[in-house]
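Narrative of accomplishments. A recurring question from our advisory board has been how the design workflow behaves on a single, concrete structure rather than in aggregate. To address it, we present the structure tokens for one chain from the evaluation set, followed by the sequence designed for it. No filtering or post-editing was applied between the two.
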């Protein structure tokens, strides 16, 4: 499942981070590298905390004890295995 599809309150573990955005490679050529730099790494446990009430974008993620906001288009590059709590 993609991180962008997870509902608030969901837990998971990062399986894979795509190096290039799947639908817009020319816009995000270094997306995977940037996500890794801010703490998104394979096997890290995550929880989706909140989403913007009107547009549902951005979403707030808890990872490694930190809360990070991501746009949904960025979250599409992260593959997650559901069901593993923090």
């Amino acid at each position: 499942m993609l991180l962008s599809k997870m509902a608030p309150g969901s837990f998971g573990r990062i399986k894979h981070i795509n190096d290039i955005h799947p639908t817009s490679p020319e816009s995000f050529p270094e997306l995977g590298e940037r996500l890794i730099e801010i703490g998104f790494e394979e096997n890290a446990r995550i929880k989706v905390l909140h989403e913007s009430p009107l547009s549902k974008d951005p979403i707030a993620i808890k990872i490694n004890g930190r809360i990070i906001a991501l746009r949904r288009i960025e979250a599409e590059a992260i593959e997650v295995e559901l069901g593993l709590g923090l």
